[in-house]
Amino acid sequence: MQTTKRTPAKYHPKGLTVIHEDKDIIVVEKPCGLLTIGTDRDKTRTVHTILNDYVRKGDPRSRNRAYIVHRLDRETSGILILAKSETVKIFLQDHWQETEKRYLTIVHGSVSPKTDTISSYLTENSAFTVYSTSDPTAGKLSHTEYTVLKETRGFSLLEIHLLTGRKHQIRVHLSEKGHPVVGDKKYGKRNDSHGTLALHARSLSITHPVNGKRMTFETAIPEFFTRLVGAIEGQGATVLQGDGLNHER
Question: Which residue out of 22, 73, 184, 192 is catalytically annotated?
Answer without folding.
Answer: 73
